[in-house]
Amino acid sequence: MDNSIVSALIVLSAIGVLAAIILYFIAQKFKVIEDPKIDDVDEALPGANCGGCGYAGCRAFAESMVKAGTMEGFFCPVGGNDLMKSLAPILGVEAPEKAPQIAVLRCNGSVKNSIPKFEYDGDMTCSFTTSLTAGTGGCQFGCLGGGECVDACDFDAMYMDPETNLPVVKVNCVACNACVEACPRDILELRNRGPKEKRIFVACINAEKGPLSKQNCTVSCIGCKACVKVCNFDAIDVNNFLAYINYEACTLCRKCVEVCPTNAIHEISFKPRKPKADKKEKEEVRLVVK
Amino acid sequence: MKLKTFNIGGIHPPEHKLSASAAIQDAPLPKVAVVPLSQHLGAPAKVKVKRGEMVKVGTLLAKGEAFISANIHSPVSGKVAKIEPRVDSSGFRRESVVIEVQGDEWNEDIDTSNDIIKDIKLEKKDILQRIHDCGIVGLGGATFPSHVKYMIPEGRSVEFLIINGVECEPYITSDDQLMLEKGEEMMVGIRVMMKAAGVEKAIIGVENNKPKAIEHLRKIADQYQGISVEPLKVQYPQGGEKQLIDALIKRQIPAGKLPSDVGCVVNNVGTAFAIYEAVQKNKPLVERIVTVTGKTVKKPSNFKVRLGTPISDLLPLAECDMENTGKVINGGPMMGKALVALNAAVTKGTSAVLLIKKEESKRVTVQNCIRCGKCMSVCPMGLEPYLLSVIARQGENERCETERIMDCIECGSCVYTCPSGRPLLDNIRLGKANTGFMIRTRGRK
What we know:
The complex is a heterodimer of chains A (about 290) and B (about 450).
Chain A: H1 3-29, H2 36-44, H3 58-68, H4 80-91, E1 101-105, H5 126-132, H6 148-152, E2 158-161, E3 166-169, H7 178-182, E4 188-192, E5 199-202, H8 210-216, H9 226-230, E6 236-239, E7 242-245, H10 255-259, E8 265-268, H11 279-289
Antiparallel strand pairs in A: 1-4, 2-3, 5-8, 6-7
Chain B: E1 24-26, E2 32-36, E3 46-47, E4 54-55, E5 60-63, E6 72-73, E7 78-87, E8 93-101, H1 124-133, H2 146-149, E9 160-165, H3 174-181, H4 183-197, E10 201-207, H5 211-221, E11 227-232, H6 241-249, E12 264-268, H7 269-281, E13 287-294, E14 301-306, H8 311-317, E15 325-330, E16 337-338, E17 352-357, H9 358-361, H10 374-378, H11 385-393, H12 397-402, H13 413-417, H14 424-442
Parallel strand pairs in B: 1-14, 9-10, 9-12, 10-11, 13-17
Antiparallel strand pairs in B: 2-8, 3-5, 4-7, 5-6, 7-8, 13-14, 15-16, 15-17
Helix pairs in contact in B: 1-4, 3-5, 4-7, 11-14
């Protein structure tokens, strides 16, 4: 065997061993001790990195939560209560419970309800359109139909309805808040899903006086306060000629839906009402029974 | 002799100055005048009148109390019917004073005679105060409050007053006619402005496609000390502040700086006339010249219009064929914005109403960028519009800032020249808004 090969082998192995020893000591010196719980939590999280929890991603959420040592103030909307319960044993604390939420479109200014007064052929991005014009229907609060919220949704939970030109939120919404932040007009809102997906909300955010908002849209809230009068639970506030239903106080009695003169209050997932018989008819029925 | 012009970029769209020889006519008074409280750049003015109050022409309706704001005066006489939000040219409702017109009574202290008063009696400080009180704003289109321009910071001296008579936008002729008919008054106005700014030299820049105006101004400029008239090569956007300074005195304004940093104050010819009326005749800004023009207009004309007149009132005066009109634009074809409602009022910034034919009003189909670089070669600010458009769309605000998106003057040369019909300026405007927001909120975090 050639001498040079032997010497090369020896020298290289020596360098290798030396480097390994140095690296070992450096690694010991600068060791980062990470809580193994972080990995456990991160593993259990959905890994969507949607930012719905308020942190930069799932890992950041796990790190902050483990560091805080409590689950108070931490909530992953994608996993919901089930996930939070499963995380509780890892941290050894009680899991907070939150009512599941869903994004709600507070505008019903479809092409039929808010008839376009002119043609708009410019850039269709909502944030650009709103800097140029109030919208083809004339309402400066309502949906522009540009679909920036749909683009922002990472969960395929929204789509644009071609008939109404309004976005629709599907049941698989995880309430990550991305669409709410994307909308330049703050039309979308996260609200409690309610029992069996039953929800009541005001589908309008027009803060103008009634006669003005009615000029542009047939289903706008005119601030008449009929709903406030009929509500027994103090769940409705009217500010700036606009009603807002507090979803925590609302008992879903549907009285306000009936009295709203412009049908601005929407009910979702309720069974259709039984047609109410008139008084006269009732009396007639009684007579027949006798 | 080679005519002066600015150095980089620029385009030459067809001029279409249809109303060039139309003398200025007085438009009839409106029945109801709608005066928006925000007709200028800066904070809206605060209302000073009440519902039911009787006002005369020149009565103060609203006071501009913020630093950058302007007073608003009643353009008509009559009764304040309502103070409510009214639809403006973009479709948004903005707080306005609605006045039912009765007769035409002027405030007593306004000199309404036609005599030209050449003596400038007021001192520098009083001139500035008068400009402020009379609510004068830049009438070239940007409506920047004029008194702010003359508040030159301590330790900075101004050498030149530059008067913008360029009118580089196609179709518009309001400044051209004003120079022809009110040249003498304008010159006095310029002398007033020179006194206010404390300068010895004033240059009026006029594009060479207005030979009559140049000749007329040159004739009378001899009688006024320090005023010269400079013909310029026809090129868009020469009317931009930075471009005009570059064209006339070969000085370039650094990014984010003002004309006073290179020793200039720039004002429009319309503003010069308004300042003459304000200082010499105590007349607030209550009317302006509006060109009504376009290919579907039978009688393209220049009107002297009271502010607050609905634009729809002007259209029949010029015999507009609304059947074949697809778009009505507030301003010129390059920088104007399409009107959303025809009943929007004429404001201090309305220099023209342009009607576009139905066939020409549609946007062209957008095709892919072919990297021809035409947008770069025409950009008067030396930017890269194709790049800005893409990064603005992607929301890369930091990169937009380093690529100098805030320098864009929104002249639209890039869109005009793009062979693929790409909406470059739309995207850049979006990026400018987002980047500007990022820069403004940076200090707060």
